[in-house]
Write the structure tokens for this entry.
Amino acid sequence: MLYSDIARELIERREHDLAVRQRLIEEGTLFRGYSPEMEAVHLDNARQLQSIIAQIGWPAREQVGEEASQAAWLIVQHAISWPEFMKSTLALMHEQKPTRTIDPVALAFLSDRIAMYEDRPQVYGTQFVDDEHGRLVPYLLDGPVDEVNQRRGQVGLNTVEERLVELTAQLSVEQRKQPTADERQQERIAYDRWRRKVGWITA
């Protein structure tokens, strides 16, 4: 590991992110739109990561160790109100694949997340959303589920069906309250308004 101080900071920032998320879950406020407190944490972490990338490039495991590299990926994955940063970081990770160890699972999740926010089909089926009945389902897939599962297997992921079981169990632990149909409609309007505001969509 070349940058132990940076590694420590990335891990501490990830832990702070997750601690705030857990507190908001316990308070029952995390799933009521995008929490301003959560967004502030995400943006602060992303700005610091941008500074780190300017110094050392993508913090792969050769630079900061496996745990800190995964922490850096989580920070990018959560920087949802900064589209240009997410997209430029994905491009950088692809660019540095020949010279650094870039986790293919991290690439799959990040590319799918960007696709979802831009209303494009996802290639690896890593992103899940609520349907009109409040049931968790995969966001729009790029091709039949068998093809998506084949791609998932190639990067080391389990099947879409297995992942759905895992996420459903996780949500039951988090005790997320299901919105009514009217609340769901209002959430969708607010979601699209937010995407336009931060630059994911223009229409």
Q: What stands out?
A: The chain has a mean pLDDT of 93. The longest strand covers residues 128-130. DSSP finds nine helices and two strands in the chain.
